[in-house]
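debug: dumping io for the single-chain case to check the tokenizer round-trip. Nothing else runs in this session.
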Amino acid sequence: MRKKITVFLSDLEEFLGYYPVQITSAILDKYQTLEIGILIVNLIFNLIKSLLIVISVLIVFSLLLISV
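debug: decoded output
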């Protein structure tokens, strides 16, 4: 999505003919902030998922030991 916005703004800049002017977009700034937040949330969920997998493996192992 970021690439599409950047390409659109570059095409607009080229169409207008203002090569020394740099076009900035508030959408891209907000998107970068949200992207960092999404990465942090994904990291937290992956840590929780890994912890639950380790706990479930330990529970299955303990149940197998008890039944033997």
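debug: round-trip ok. The two ends are 56 Å apart (CA to CA).
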